[in-house]
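Example 3.
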Amino acid sequence: MTNVYIKGIGMTKFGKFVDKSMKELLLEASIQALEDAGNPKVDAVFVGNFMGGSISNQEILGAIVANELGLGYIPTAKVEGACASGGIALRQGIMGILSGEYDTVLVAGVEKMKHASTADVTQAINAAMDTVSNEKQAGLTFPGFFGVLANRYFHETDATKEHLAMVALKNRENALNNPLAQFQKPTTMEEIMGARIITSPLGLFDCSPTSDGAAALIITREKGDIHIRSSAQSSGPTQMQDADDLLSLPAVRESGRLAYEKAGVGPDDIDVIEIHDCFSMTEMLAIEELGFFNKREGWLAVEQGRTKATGDKPVNTSGGLLSRGHPIGATGIAQIYQLVQQLRGTAPNQVEGARLALAQNLGGTGSYSTVHILERL
Amino acid sequence: MKVYQCDSCEYASVSNKYRCPSCGTGQLHEQEVSSKGSVYSYTDIHIAPAEFAHLAPYIVALIQLDDARAKVTVRMNAEVSIGDIVELDHVENGAYVYRKC
């Protein structure tokens, strides 16, 4: 259990914003969070960001936030953990408060990707793999890793490409109600199944998009109504060929186990969930690894509609990475933004009476995972 | 094909480690084993990063080696299915390029 509470939240719309710089997005979300928290004194800033250096030639994001917002000469840092940059930044803020060093921390996440070409972004994303390896030289890509997993999952279970499409459709349907989501155009099973292949068996709708966007939180030791019950983080294999069980993401499983243990709750107690669905296949595996469903049976739960907003384990009521969008560094913070709204009772696709919420943020091909469990007091 | 085998548990990998990540105590020792194995899974990559774009679409497969408890990620020079028997064709820019047997 932590003594940390979430006092304010902010988030830009996710999508393509050619006229806005990374800095503008970051400040917009941060100001919203500060205002939502009643403009408290901030003791430190942590910013989750992955490719600001490589495709925007912009670092020092922590100091930029502190200076532009007039927070004073406080300690700040950018946190990089691939797609888990946001979740790890949040965890660093929590650790800073738990250590006694800070009372109140601004945690933000941002990414600006839409100005770069697909080939350049794919190349930049590949930095989240172990690039000095025979595996990288073979040409394995990020989506490719989850394509290999999906073909093996189909081989070992009765799941098919249609089950992946059901995940993509569910998350799109949720996004339609979320005004901040990137994709707000309805789709159909036929369109998803017929979309062009990115890496077999994954098609366009099975893959999260590139996005611009930012999100921010104010966390504090001052007691409030949204309690961070636990924060956990784990690492996993950095290469596919080193996976002991290809259909397992050990970092997800272990971070989940630790988060449940620290919070004193189990998967049955969780009312609403945001999971790192960078690909439809990733959501399928993560709902198993986090103990919501048996191993190799996630596809059945999806088929039965149990992960829909109206199901008994609602997953990605925001639209998830697939349809809310995936500005990499912002994603882990955007998950918390949605869950705080769920606990406040003001969320798109509101789950009635939600009290316990879980967010899981993944980095690399299973290299990093964070899990945070939130509680409405 | 070089494989690194733990001296105190069953762990093996095609890449060396400071100590065994599975048991945490064993040391890994280099062994030379046959490149022959079977396709554990695969994907056909259509959208590639800039440096591999000229090869796309291409097939990347995960091979279960016959002679070691290790898997290796390779590029295939032909279409494959899970279970197909395959072996090393050649090494290209640090990549193992495999063919069907």
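Chain B has a mean pLDDT of 96. Residues 34-101 of chain B form a domain with the OB fold (Dihydrolipoamide Acetyltransferase, E2P) fold (CATH 2.40.50).
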